[in-house]
Design goal:
- The chain is of the alpha+beta class and about 180 residues long.
- The chain has two domains: about 80 residues, Alpha-Beta Plaits, CATH 3.30.70; about 90 residues, 2-Layer Sandwich (Alpha-Beta Plaits), CATH 3.30.70.
- The chain contains five helices and eight strands.
- A hairpin with a 6-residue loop joins strand 6 and strand 7.
- The longest helix is centred in the C-terminal third of the chain and has 15 residues.
- The two termini are about 35 Å apart.
């Protein structure tokens, strides 16, 4: 019987990291299903969904532990297929939103916005952030794009009012819009 696992990993960015993990998965007759990876501040990190026979899970764990001496820290967790299918169905029926933030970088931006989203039961599916330089002043600008789901058909007007308060208090721009993907 095939099991599904999520392997999260991080290591110093250098060539061959993906090959190390891919070889461990392949050697244990696992199949690399989905992944998302990023290079950030000299580190390379990612998530990989793996399909593998139950009898090969322990050999994969051991192989991944062996990669630590090559600078790759890997954590493996099983995927709860029942919960995963339910979550996928909820996501597909939920409306998708996109939230964009830009403003002078300061502590607390992500905290305040994520607090408002959590209170509204809005789920963050994907989030990307980066800093850029303001065109005239050169100050650091915080930029974020989030893909969200509104699984519970939350009152978006109330959420937008809350986000407007945060925007005003922190002097940042926050735009919430329907995502047509």
């Amino acid at each position: 019987m095939k099991s599904r696992l999520i392997c999260s990993f991080i290591g110093d960015d250098k060539h061959g990291l993906i090959e190390l993990l891919a070889k461990a998965i392949s050697d244990c007759n696992g199949s690399w299903s989905e992944s998302s990876m990023v290079r950030l501040s000299g580190q390379f990190a990612g998530l990989v969904k793996v399909a593998i026979d139950e009898s090969n899970i322990e050999p994969l764990r051991l192989a991944c532990e062996g990669l630590a001496n090559q600078g790759l820290a890997i954590h493996i967790i099983p995927v709860n297929e029942t919960a995963n299918n339910s979550a996928n169905n909820d996501e597909q029926s939920a409306s998708q939103l996109q939230l964009n933030i830009i403003g002078n970088d300061r502590p607390g931006i992500v905290y305040e916005v994520s607090q408002a989203l959590a209170a509204a039961k809005i789920n963050v599916i994907k989030m990307k952030t980066h800093l850029s330089s303001a065109p005239m002043s050169g100050d650091s600008l915080f930029n974020s794009t989030m893909l969200l789901t509104n699984e519970y058909d939350h009152d978006l007007d109330a959420l937008e009012k809350q986000l407007d308060k945060i925007s005003e208090r922190l002097s940042i721009e926050i735009d919430l819009e329907a995502n047509d993907e």
